[in-house]
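Not sure how to ask, but would you mind making up any protein sequence you like and the C-alpha cells describing how it folds?
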Amino acid sequence: MDHYIPKRRIPVTLWSDHLQGVPGRIFLDLDPLGAKHQTILERLNESSPFLPIGMGDEGRIHLIQRQRLTRVTPGRQVLQSDVFARGFNPWREERADVLLCDGTHLSGRMWMPIERETQRPSDFLNGLGSSFFVLITPAGLHLVNASAVVDVELAESAGAPLSSETVIGM
C-alpha cells in the first residue's frame, strides 16, 4: 500500500495545444516536518509522465501528460515561494523574449539557478531538456516547458558586429 502524503491544492492555469487557459488545482506535497514544502516548479519537473490536476467545481482529478503542457501559470494570489524557491544557491535573472510553439509571445526575466560563474542563458536552456523554467513577466509568473520554446531573444548582444557594414572603415 502506498504511503499517503498530505497535499496542498494550489490554483493554476494550464496551457497546451489542446488546453487553452484551463483553470485547475495542482497538488503539492506537504513536508510532514514542516521544513520544506514542494513548489510548483519541483512538481512540474518530477519524472512521472502524468500530472494530477483537480478541475471543475467538483474538483475531479484529471491526469495531464506533463510534457504536452506548454506552460503553467499560478493564480495571482499564489505566493512566489509556492511557485519556485530561490534558496541560498546563486541565481540570476536575464531579460528574455520567449516565443512558444503555440504562438504565444512572453517578455520578462528568465530566472536561472547558476551552476558556474560562466554559465550563459544558452547553457541553462540547453541543460533543461524538457524541464520547466520560470519566466517572470509584468503579468505574473509563468512556468514554461523548455521543449515548447521555439525562440528566445536575449537582451545581450554578440559583443561584436555581425555584419561587415557595421565594422569601422567599411
